[in-house]
Amino acid sequence: MTITILLADDENLIRDALASLLGLQEDLEVVAQAASGTEAIAAAAKHRPDVAVLDLQMPGADGIEVAEHLGREVPGCAAVIVTSHGRPGYLRKALEVGVRGFVPKTVSASVLADVVRQVHQGGRYVDPELAADAIASGASPLTPRESDVLELAADGAPVEEIAARAHLSAGTVRNYLSAVVSKLGVANRHEAVARARAQGWL
């Protein structure tokens, strides 16, 4: 039996390479590709894949938001998140919305193929290192979006630049940073970055 796959990643080179590598597996077939969360949602509705392999950070909607949508609209499709941002907060949120696989982008294609098979059969797979980090760090008080904005602020970028990179308005960025400073009980965003990194939340 062939397992059909939707691949969503806004980096074309990575997506194309992954499609080629997964396509070498006799029991796997990539039936659709998407470069954004919005495209992924549309492609899933059209192709009804067995498994969606989703990049965590994409324009339009992130991988977790796409997975949450698929859980409601395409319930037969198991979601796997592939990420270079393995923060514990993301892992918890992903599991809460029903994501069945969570792996770093450093995994080999053969491991990812095995994860696809495992989640298709109803199993779960969370990268052991990411799981250990999540347990060790404790629960972050920050939402994933707050963590995103704080990470973009870590190198001292101005609010306008953070807003452009996060696809948000400057006012929304200021609100997120204000909430972060308040939640972490620090004086400014620079102290917030240091505290969040020390706790493993960034």
Which fold name corresponds to the CATH topology of the largest domain? Rossmann fold
Reported for the largest beta sheet, the result is: 6 strands, parallel
CATH H level, superfamily name of the largest domain: Response regulator
Query: How many helix segments?
Result: 10
Residue share in β-strands: 5-15%
Q: Overall mean pLDDT score?
A: 91
* N-to-C span: 41 Å
Helix/strand structural class: alpha/beta
> Low-confidence parts, pLDDT < 50 over ≥5 residues?
none
Task: List key phrases describing it.
single chain; 202 residues; alpha/beta; Rossmann fold; Arc Repressor Mutant, subunit A; six-stranded parallel sheet; 15% strand
Task: Give an overview in words.
With 202 residues, this protein is α/β, with parallel strands linked by helices. The chain folds into two domains: 134 residues, Rossmann fold; 55 residues, Winged helix-like DNA-binding domain superfamily/Winged helix DNA-binding domain (Arc Repressor Mutant, subunit A), CATH 1.10.10.10. Helices cover 53% and strands 15% of the residues. It has ten helices and six strands. The chain has a six-stranded parallel β-sheet with strand order 2-1-3-4-5-6, with helices on both faces. The termini are far apart.
